[in-house]
Amino acid sequence: MLRIKYALGCSVLHQADYVISVDTSSFHCAGGMGKPLVGIFTFADGVVYGKYYDFFLVQKHRNFDPCWTCGPCYNWGNCTKTDKNIKPCLTEITVEMIMTKVDKMLEKWPNGNYNEESGKICLS
């Protein structure tokens, strides 16, 4: 049953022009298909996990924001910022951050995976 649901999800992604996803199998499946992609990451490092995909990363990341010293840390259970269940790496990702990357994705791939010259869907 799980294989059927996964296959259905992959077929939906295959038909999509664009994908916006958190760090899940959908993100990796879309990345592997070469889909125009925005990936939203929290405590796991999107730079590392997305290194084989051409995508736009949404993440509070110490390598890109000198004011952000926290992560990614891979250490959800022992967060040094808070002992609450809701961590700053989740709450400090804003709608504006996501929309900025969506706009960049649409600029880079204005036709999604469709190539106007050949009239074909491009998977790379």
The major pleated sheet works out as: 3 strands, parallel
Q: Report the portion of residues in β strands.
A: 5-15%
Number of helices: 5
- Work out the radius of gyration: 16 Å
- Let me know the number of strands: 5
Strand order of the largest sheet: 1-2-3
Instruction: Report the structural category.
Output: alpha/beta
How do the helices and strands follow one another from N- to C-terminus? HEHEHEHHEE
State the domain count: 1
- Give start-end ranges of low-pLDDT stretches: 118-124
Label the overall shape. globular
| Average residue-wise pLDDT | 85
Q: Please report the distance between the alpha carbons of the first and last residues.
A: 30 Å
Description:
- The structure is a single chain.
- The protein is globular.
- It has one domain.
- Strands 1-2-3 form a 3-stranded parallel sheet, sandwiched between helices. A two-stranded antiparallel ribbon has the order 4-5.
- The protein is of the alpha/beta class.
- Helix 3 links the parallel strand 2 and strand 3.
- The C terminus is likely disordered.
